[in-house]
Amino acid sequence: MISLQNQIILITGASSGIGTACAKIFAGAGAKLILAARRLERLQQLTEELKKEFETEVYLLQLDVRDRAAVESAISNLPTAWSEIDILINNAGLSRGLDKLHEGSFQDWEEMIDTNIKGLLYLTRYVVPGMVKRDRGHVVNVGSIAGHQAYPGGNVYCGTKAAVRLISEGLKQDLLGTSVRVTSVDPGMVETEFSDVRFHGDTERAKKVYQGVTPLTPDDVADVILFCTTRSPHVNINEVILMPVDQASATLVNRQIEK
After folding, report:
1. Around Cβ 175, how many Cβ atoms within 10 Å?
2. Domain locations in the chain?
3. pLDDT for 175-184, tens place per residue?
4. Residue 138 · residue 181 · CB < 8 Å
5. Which Pfam families match (predicted)?
6. Of 122, 126, 157, 210, which one is the catalytic site residue?
7. Which of 127, 215, 235, 237 could form a disulfide with 189 if both were Cys (CB 3.0 to 4.6 A apart)?
8. What separation, in Å, do the N-terminal and C-terminal C-alpha atoms of the chain show?
9. Overall pTM surpassing 0.85 (yes/no)
C-alpha cells in the first residue's frame, strides 16, 4: 500500500460532489491538494474546512477546464513546490438534459463535450508529461455506467462517458513502459448536484431521480478512488464499475415507492 503523505493531488470539479469528497478523503490521508473549479468561493470554504480538520496544505485554481489556454496557464504557472503532481483526478464533468437526440440542444451538447471530453484531455495533456518525465504518477478519470450502457435520452452524455472510458484505455496503452498508472472509476447513481445540473436547476425533478432508492454517496466513490491510488506501485486498477445495491444497470433500478 502506497502512502499518500505529502503527495500532490490535483482534483478538478472540487467545489462539490465527488470532487469535494475526494478532497476530504485525500486530506485525511496526508496529501497536499490542488483544488480546481469554477466556483472560487466554494473552494475557499472547502479549504478552510480542510485546514481546520486536517491541517492540509491547499493550492486553489479557479479554472474552467473547457478553456485550454487557461488550463495551460494554470499548470505551467504552478509554484515550484506544487508543480510535481503525483495524482490527477479528472472529476469535472456534467450532464445536460434528457432530450431525444433529434430534438437535442446544441448548447447542451457542446457543454458536455467540452467539459467531459476536451477538459479531461486538456488536463491530461498538460499534467502527464511531467509524470512521464519523473516516471511516477497516477491519472484517475471519473467516468460513469453511462459509458458502458446507453439509456433513453442519454445519447450525447453517454457518448462523452464512453469516450472517457476509451481515452483511459488508450492512455494506459500509451504509458506502457512507464510507471504511470491509469484508472477509470465508473459509478452508477450517485446523489450529487448531477441531476440539478442536468435539469437546469429544476430541484423537484432532480429529487425524483433518487426517490425510493438508496444511491451511492460521493464519499463511496471517493473511497474507491483512494483504494485505487494506494495499491502497490506494480498494481494498476484499470477500471472499476460501482453501483448501489438498488441498481443493476443504467436503466434497471429498484424503487420502493411509498403508497
Report:
1. 18
2. 8-242
3. 999 999 999 9
4. yes
5. adh_short
6. 157
7. 215
8. 48
9. yes
Task: Please name the residues in contact with 96: beta carbons below 8 A apart, sequence gap of 6 or more.
Answer: 105, 107, 108, 109, 111, 112, 157, 197, 198, 200
> What SS3 state is found at 53?
helix
Where is 127: in which H helix or E strand? helix 120-134
The answer to whether residue 157 is catalytic is yes
The Cα 116–Cα 113 span in angstroms is 5
Closest C-alpha to 130, from 176, 67, 167, 88: 88
Does residue 202 carry a pLDDT above 80?
Answer: no
| pLDDT at 259 > cutoff 60 | no
Q: Which single residue is written with the C-alpha cell 492540509?
A: 56
Name the grid cell of 178.
512507464
Among residues 218, 220, 213, the alpha carbon closest in space to that of 246 is found at 213
* pLDDT tens digit sequence for 69-87: 999 999 999 999 999 999 9
Nearest to 121 by CA among 166, 176, 87: 166
Question: Which run of H or E residues covers position 60?
Answer: strand 58-62
Grid coordinates standing for 220?
Answer: 463511496
CATH 3.40.50.720, domain 8-242, yes or no: yes
